[in-house]
Specification:
The chain has 354 residues and is an alpha/beta fold. It has 14 helices and eleven strands. The chain has a seven-stranded mixed sheet, with helices on both faces. Strand 8, helix 7 and strand 9 form a beta-alpha-beta unit. It is globular.
Length: 354
Protein backbone atom coordinates (compact mmCIF):
# COMPACT_ATOMS: atom_id res chain seq x y z
CA UNK A 1 0.00 0.00 0.00
CA UNK A 2 1.38 3.40 -1.02
CA UNK A 3 0.58 6.22 1.37
CA UNK A 4 0.22 9.48 -0.54
CA UNK A 5 1.60 12.37 1.50
CA UNK A 6 0.63 15.01 -1.03
CA UNK A 7 -3.07 15.23 -0.26
CA UNK A 8 -4.69 18.35 1.06
CA UNK A 9 -7.79 17.57 3.10
CA UNK A 10 -10.38 20.06 4.25
CA UNK A 11 -11.94 20.53 6.71
CA UNK A 12 -11.45 17.21 8.58
CA UNK A 13 -10.48 13.57 8.12
CA UNK A 14 -13.53 11.32 8.33
CA UNK A 15 -13.05 8.20 6.16
CA UNK A 16 -9.79 6.89 4.72
CA UNK A 17 -9.87 4.70 1.60
CA UNK A 18 -7.41 3.70 -1.11
CA UNK A 19 -7.53 4.48 -4.80
CA UNK A 20 -7.96 1.23 -6.78
CA UNK A 21 -5.64 2.49 -9.52
CA UNK A 22 -2.61 3.92 -7.72
CA UNK A 23 -3.38 2.52 -4.22
CA UNK A 24 -2.78 5.95 -2.65
CA UNK A 25 -4.73 6.64 0.50
CA UNK A 26 -7.24 9.43 0.33
CA UNK A 27 -9.95 10.86 2.54
CA UNK A 28 -13.58 11.83 2.03
CA UNK A 29 -15.24 14.56 4.06
CA UNK A 30 -18.86 14.47 2.91
CA UNK A 31 -18.24 15.17 -0.80
CA UNK A 32 -15.24 17.44 -0.35
CA UNK A 33 -12.01 15.94 -1.67
CA UNK A 34 -8.97 18.08 -2.42
CA UNK A 35 -5.89 16.43 -3.96
CA UNK A 36 -2.62 18.26 -4.42
CA UNK A 37 -1.24 18.93 -7.92
CA UNK A 38 1.42 16.23 -7.53
CA UNK A 39 -0.90 13.64 -6.02
CA UNK A 40 -0.84 10.32 -7.86
CA UNK A 41 -4.56 10.01 -7.29
CA UNK A 42 -5.19 13.08 -9.43
CA UNK A 43 -2.92 11.75 -12.16
CA UNK A 44 -4.54 8.33 -12.31
CA UNK A 45 -8.06 9.73 -12.45
CA UNK A 46 -7.91 9.73 -16.25
CA UNK A 47 -7.93 5.94 -16.42
CA UNK A 48 -9.77 4.98 -13.24
CA UNK A 49 -13.53 4.89 -12.95
CA UNK A 50 -13.33 4.77 -9.17
CA UNK A 51 -11.13 7.75 -8.32
CA UNK A 52 -12.84 10.79 -6.89
CA UNK A 53 -14.90 12.35 -8.28
CA UNK A 54 -15.91 8.95 -9.72
CA UNK A 55 -16.90 8.89 -13.36
CA UNK A 56 -19.98 6.84 -12.52
CA UNK A 57 -21.12 9.60 -10.18
CA UNK A 58 -20.42 12.32 -12.73
CA UNK A 59 -22.34 10.46 -15.41
CA UNK A 60 -25.49 10.68 -13.28
CA UNK A 61 -25.35 14.48 -13.09
CA UNK A 62 -27.24 14.99 -16.35
CA UNK A 63 -29.82 17.60 -15.42
CA UNK A 64 -29.95 20.86 -17.36
CA UNK A 65 -29.08 23.73 -15.06
CA UNK A 66 -30.94 26.97 -15.62
CA UNK A 67 -29.75 28.17 -12.24
CA UNK A 68 -33.32 27.57 -11.08
CA UNK A 69 -35.20 30.70 -10.04
CA UNK A 70 -31.91 32.54 -9.64
CA UNK A 71 -32.08 33.58 -13.31
CA UNK A 72 -35.34 35.47 -12.96
CA UNK A 73 -35.30 38.76 -14.92
CA UNK A 74 -35.72 40.73 -11.69
CA UNK A 75 -32.67 39.11 -10.08
CA UNK A 76 -30.45 41.88 -8.72
CA UNK A 77 -26.84 40.82 -9.16
CA UNK A 78 -25.66 44.38 -8.49
CA UNK A 79 -26.96 44.51 -4.94
CA UNK A 80 -25.79 40.95 -4.21
CA UNK A 81 -22.27 41.65 -5.44
CA UNK A 82 -22.04 45.06 -3.75
CA UNK A 83 -22.92 43.37 -0.46
CA UNK A 84 -20.19 40.79 -1.05
CA UNK A 85 -17.54 43.18 -2.41
CA UNK A 86 -18.45 46.36 -0.51
CA UNK A 87 -14.74 46.91 0.17
CA UNK A 88 -14.05 46.96 -3.60
CA UNK A 89 -17.11 48.49 -5.35
CA UNK A 90 -15.56 48.50 -8.87
CA UNK A 91 -15.15 44.73 -8.64
CA UNK A 92 -18.82 44.41 -7.70
CA UNK A 93 -19.93 46.50 -10.68
CA UNK A 94 -17.90 44.52 -13.23
CA UNK A 95 -18.88 41.15 -11.77
CA UNK A 96 -22.56 42.11 -11.59
CA UNK A 97 -22.72 42.96 -15.30
CA UNK A 98 -20.69 39.83 -16.02
CA UNK A 99 -23.03 37.51 -14.12
CA UNK A 100 -26.13 39.14 -15.59
CA UNK A 101 -24.69 38.20 -18.99
CA UNK A 102 -23.57 34.70 -17.99
CA UNK A 103 -26.94 33.93 -16.36
CA UNK A 104 -28.61 34.03 -19.78
CA UNK A 105 -26.78 30.86 -20.84
CA UNK A 106 -27.94 27.27 -20.26
CA UNK A 107 -25.66 25.02 -18.22
CA UNK A 108 -25.85 21.23 -18.36
CA UNK A 109 -24.48 18.84 -15.77
CA UNK A 110 -21.94 17.56 -14.93
CA UNK A 111 -20.59 21.10 -14.51
CA UNK A 112 -16.96 22.07 -13.84
CA UNK A 113 -15.98 25.53 -12.58
CA UNK A 114 -12.45 26.02 -13.90
CA UNK A 115 -10.54 28.48 -11.72
CA UNK A 116 -13.24 28.49 -9.08
CA UNK A 117 -11.39 30.75 -6.63
CA UNK A 118 -13.17 31.03 -3.29
CA UNK A 119 -16.50 30.00 -4.82
CA UNK A 120 -18.24 33.32 -4.24
CA UNK A 121 -19.01 34.07 -7.91
CA UNK A 122 -20.32 30.59 -8.69
CA UNK A 123 -22.29 30.67 -5.45
CA UNK A 124 -24.07 33.84 -6.52
CA UNK A 125 -24.70 32.49 -10.02
CA UNK A 126 -25.60 28.85 -9.35
CA UNK A 127 -26.57 28.71 -5.68
CA UNK A 128 -25.89 26.06 -3.03
CA UNK A 129 -24.64 22.74 -4.44
CA UNK A 130 -25.17 24.21 -7.89
CA UNK A 131 -21.80 23.15 -9.28
CA UNK A 132 -20.57 19.56 -9.43
CA UNK A 133 -16.82 20.23 -9.38
CA UNK A 134 -14.65 23.26 -8.65
CA UNK A 135 -10.93 23.36 -9.45
CA UNK A 136 -8.31 26.01 -8.67
CA UNK A 137 -4.47 26.14 -8.52
CA UNK A 138 -4.38 28.10 -5.24
CA UNK A 139 -4.68 26.04 -2.06
CA UNK A 140 -6.02 28.90 0.07
CA UNK A 141 -8.79 29.56 -2.45
CA UNK A 142 -9.64 25.87 -2.67
CA UNK A 143 -10.07 25.69 1.10
CA UNK A 144 -12.48 28.63 1.00
CA UNK A 145 -14.38 27.09 -1.93
CA UNK A 146 -14.78 23.84 0.01
CA UNK A 147 -16.56 25.79 2.76
CA UNK A 148 -18.74 27.83 0.40
CA UNK A 149 -21.45 25.20 -0.03
CA UNK A 150 -21.43 25.80 -3.79
CA UNK A 151 -19.57 22.67 -4.93
CA UNK A 152 -20.15 18.96 -4.52
CA UNK A 153 -16.45 18.34 -5.14
CA UNK A 154 -13.52 20.74 -4.84
CA UNK A 155 -10.03 19.99 -6.11
CA UNK A 156 -6.63 21.63 -6.16
CA UNK A 157 -5.26 21.27 -9.69
CA UNK A 158 -3.76 22.78 -12.81
CA UNK A 159 -5.81 23.66 -15.88
CA UNK A 160 -2.98 22.47 -18.12
CA UNK A 161 -3.42 18.92 -16.82
CA UNK A 162 -6.96 18.44 -15.58
CA UNK A 163 -7.27 15.45 -13.20
CA UNK A 164 -10.35 14.03 -14.93
CA UNK A 165 -11.12 11.32 -17.43
CA UNK A 166 -11.93 12.14 -21.05
CA UNK A 167 -15.44 13.34 -21.85
CA UNK A 168 -16.90 13.56 -18.34
CA UNK A 169 -18.30 17.11 -18.27
CA UNK A 170 -21.28 18.52 -20.15
CA UNK A 171 -20.27 22.10 -19.33
CA UNK A 172 -17.06 23.80 -18.26
CA UNK A 173 -17.55 27.30 -16.89
CA UNK A 174 -14.73 29.78 -16.28
CA UNK A 175 -15.27 33.34 -15.08
CA UNK A 176 -12.48 35.86 -15.72
CA UNK A 177 -9.72 33.27 -15.38
CA UNK A 178 -8.12 32.66 -18.78
CA UNK A 179 -6.69 36.18 -19.12
CA UNK A 180 -4.45 35.43 -16.13
CA UNK A 181 -2.79 32.45 -17.86
CA UNK A 182 0.20 33.42 -20.07
CA UNK A 183 -0.17 30.44 -22.44
CA UNK A 184 -3.85 29.56 -22.52
CA UNK A 185 -3.75 27.08 -25.44
CA UNK A 186 -2.91 23.98 -23.31
CA UNK A 187 -5.78 24.82 -20.96
CA UNK A 188 -8.26 25.12 -23.83
CA UNK A 189 -7.08 21.77 -25.20
CA UNK A 190 -7.57 20.16 -21.79
CA UNK A 191 -11.07 21.59 -21.55
CA UNK A 192 -11.84 20.06 -24.94
CA UNK A 193 -10.56 16.71 -23.70
CA UNK A 194 -12.79 16.57 -20.60
CA UNK A 195 -15.92 17.81 -22.40
CA UNK A 196 -18.41 15.25 -23.63
CA UNK A 197 -18.19 14.39 -27.33
CA UNK A 198 -21.28 14.64 -29.53
CA UNK A 199 -23.35 11.51 -30.04
CA UNK A 200 -25.09 11.80 -33.43
CA UNK A 201 -26.89 8.48 -32.97
CA UNK A 202 -28.47 9.59 -29.72
CA UNK A 203 -28.95 13.18 -30.78
CA UNK A 204 -26.65 14.34 -27.99
CA UNK A 205 -24.67 17.52 -28.80
CA UNK A 206 -21.12 18.00 -27.60
CA UNK A 207 -20.30 19.66 -24.31
CA UNK A 208 -19.91 23.43 -24.04
CA UNK A 209 -17.15 25.67 -22.73
CA UNK A 210 -18.68 28.90 -21.42
CA UNK A 211 -16.25 31.57 -20.25
CA UNK A 212 -15.86 35.29 -19.72
CA UNK A 213 -12.71 37.36 -20.30
CA UNK A 214 -11.75 41.00 -20.84
CA UNK A 215 -12.26 41.69 -24.53
CA UNK A 216 -9.83 42.69 -27.25
CA UNK A 217 -10.87 46.34 -26.78
CA UNK A 218 -10.54 46.39 -22.99
CA UNK A 219 -7.40 48.56 -23.01
CA UNK A 220 -8.68 51.20 -25.38
CA UNK A 221 -11.95 51.60 -23.46
CA UNK A 222 -10.15 52.52 -20.23
CA UNK A 223 -11.13 56.03 -19.14
CA UNK A 224 -7.62 57.23 -18.32
CA UNK A 225 -6.16 55.62 -21.43
CA UNK A 226 -8.56 57.69 -23.52
CA UNK A 227 -7.89 60.79 -21.40
CA UNK A 228 -4.14 60.60 -22.02
CA UNK A 229 -4.73 59.82 -25.68
CA UNK A 230 -6.92 62.93 -26.00
CA UNK A 231 -3.96 65.06 -24.90
CA UNK A 232 -1.82 63.55 -27.63
CA UNK A 233 0.36 61.65 -25.17
CA UNK A 234 0.16 58.15 -26.64
CA UNK A 235 3.19 56.97 -24.69
CA UNK A 236 1.54 57.86 -21.38
CA UNK A 237 -1.72 56.28 -22.53
CA UNK A 238 0.05 53.03 -23.35
CA UNK A 239 1.94 53.26 -20.09
CA UNK A 240 -1.30 53.55 -18.14
CA UNK A 241 -2.78 50.52 -19.94
CA UNK A 242 0.39 48.56 -19.14
CA UNK A 243 0.04 49.53 -15.47
CA UNK A 244 -3.51 48.16 -15.46
CA UNK A 245 -2.31 44.94 -17.10
CA UNK A 246 0.38 44.51 -14.46
CA UNK A 247 -1.93 45.30 -11.55
CA UNK A 248 -4.60 42.87 -12.73
CA UNK A 249 -2.17 40.23 -14.07
CA UNK A 250 -3.69 40.31 -17.55
CA UNK A 251 -1.55 38.60 -20.18
CA UNK A 252 -3.67 38.78 -23.33
CA UNK A 253 -6.85 40.16 -24.90
CA UNK A 254 -8.00 37.92 -27.74
CA UNK A 255 -10.51 38.77 -30.44
CA UNK A 256 -13.50 36.45 -31.01
CA UNK A 257 -11.71 35.02 -34.06
CA UNK A 258 -8.57 34.33 -32.04
CA UNK A 259 -10.69 32.52 -29.48
CA UNK A 260 -12.28 30.54 -32.32
CA UNK A 261 -8.81 29.44 -33.43
CA UNK A 262 -7.87 28.43 -29.89
CA UNK A 263 -11.12 26.51 -29.44
CA UNK A 264 -10.43 24.63 -32.67
CA UNK A 265 -7.23 23.26 -31.11
CA UNK A 266 -9.41 21.64 -28.45
CA UNK A 267 -11.87 20.13 -30.92
CA UNK A 268 -14.43 22.88 -30.40
CA UNK A 269 -16.15 25.47 -32.56
CA UNK A 270 -17.10 29.00 -31.59
CA UNK A 271 -20.84 28.83 -31.02
CA UNK A 272 -21.29 32.33 -29.66
CA UNK A 273 -19.40 35.47 -28.66
CA UNK A 274 -20.99 38.46 -27.01
CA UNK A 275 -19.56 41.76 -25.79
CA UNK A 276 -20.66 43.21 -22.45
CA UNK A 277 -19.43 46.14 -20.28
CA UNK A 278 -20.35 49.11 -22.54
CA UNK A 279 -17.85 51.97 -22.80
CA UNK A 280 -19.59 54.18 -20.16
CA UNK A 281 -19.53 51.28 -17.70
CA UNK A 282 -15.81 50.68 -18.21
CA UNK A 283 -15.20 54.43 -17.83
CA UNK A 284 -16.95 54.36 -14.45
CA UNK A 285 -15.13 51.18 -13.44
CA UNK A 286 -11.74 52.68 -14.32
CA UNK A 287 -12.40 55.96 -12.50
CA UNK A 288 -13.67 54.16 -9.41
CA UNK A 289 -10.64 51.86 -9.40
CA UNK A 290 -8.43 54.87 -8.76
CA UNK A 291 -10.51 55.76 -5.71
CA UNK A 292 -11.79 52.42 -4.42
CA UNK A 293 -9.54 49.81 -6.07
CA UNK A 294 -8.09 46.97 -4.00
CA UNK A 295 -4.63 47.80 -2.71
CA UNK A 296 -4.96 51.55 -3.28
CA UNK A 297 -3.44 53.73 -0.57
CA UNK A 298 -6.29 56.02 0.34
CA UNK A 299 -8.68 56.87 3.14
CA UNK A 300 -11.08 54.30 1.70
CA UNK A 301 -8.34 51.68 1.73
CA UNK A 302 -7.85 52.34 5.43
CA UNK A 303 -11.56 52.28 6.27
CA UNK A 304 -12.08 49.01 4.36
CA UNK A 305 -8.88 47.37 5.60
CA UNK A 306 -9.24 43.64 6.44
CA UNK A 307 -7.39 44.38 9.67
CA UNK A 308 -10.40 46.38 10.85
CA UNK A 309 -13.10 43.92 9.71
CA UNK A 310 -13.97 43.06 13.29
CA UNK A 311 -15.09 46.59 14.07
CA UNK A 312 -18.80 47.20 13.90
CA UNK A 313 -18.53 50.37 11.83
CA UNK A 314 -17.58 48.33 8.76
CA UNK A 315 -20.91 46.51 8.85
CA UNK A 316 -22.73 49.84 8.87
CA UNK A 317 -20.44 51.17 6.15
CA UNK A 318 -21.09 48.10 4.00
CA UNK A 319 -24.87 48.42 4.30
CA UNK A 320 -24.80 52.16 3.58
CA UNK A 321 -22.50 51.78 0.57
CA UNK A 322 -24.47 48.87 -0.86
CA UNK A 323 -27.75 50.79 -0.68
CA UNK A 324 -26.30 53.98 -2.11
CA UNK A 325 -24.32 52.48 -5.01
CA UNK A 326 -27.11 50.05 -5.85
CA UNK A 327 -29.23 53.09 -6.71
CA UNK A 328 -26.51 55.28 -8.23
CA UNK A 329 -25.02 52.56 -10.45
CA UNK A 330 -28.33 51.01 -11.52
CA UNK A 331 -28.31 52.62 -15.02
CA UNK A 332 -24.78 51.31 -15.63
CA UNK A 333 -25.66 47.83 -14.43
CA UNK A 334 -28.64 47.63 -16.79
CA UNK A 335 -26.83 49.15 -19.77
CA UNK A 336 -26.36 46.91 -22.82
CA UNK A 337 -23.72 47.07 -25.54
CA UNK A 338 -25.51 48.49 -28.62
CA UNK A 339 -25.83 46.10 -31.59
CA UNK A 340 -22.73 46.11 -33.75
CA UNK A 341 -20.60 47.77 -31.08
CA UNK A 342 -18.01 46.39 -28.66
CA UNK A 343 -17.55 46.31 -24.90
CA UNK A 344 -14.82 45.73 -22.36
CA UNK A 345 -15.92 42.18 -21.55
CA UNK A 346 -16.43 39.17 -23.80
CA UNK A 347 -18.53 36.07 -23.20
CA UNK A 348 -17.48 33.11 -25.34
CA UNK A 349 -19.27 29.81 -25.86
CA UNK A 350 -17.46 26.93 -27.52
CA UNK A 351 -19.09 23.63 -28.49
CA UNK A 352 -17.17 20.35 -28.75
CA UNK A 353 -17.60 18.79 -32.17
CA UNK A 354 -15.01 16.01 -32.19
Amino acid sequence: MVVCSEHLFYPAIIITQSCPSCQALYTKQNVKFIPNLSCRLALCARSSTDCWPPRAWLSKQTASVRISARTEPMRDFLTELLAAYWFAPPVALWRAVELRTAAEETYHRPLLDLGCGDGLIAGVLFGADGVDVGLDPWREQVQKAACSGTYRWVQHGDGRSLPYADGVFATVFSNSVLEHIPDVAPVVREVGRVLQSPDPAGGQPGGRFIFTVPSDVFRRLLYFYQAWLATGNRARANGYAAEVDARLSHYHYHTPQEWADLLAEGGMVLEKSRYYIPEPVEHLWDRMNVRFGIGRRSLWGLLASPRLRGLRYQRLLARWLTARLSRAWRPYYEMEVPPGQVGGGLLVVGRKVR
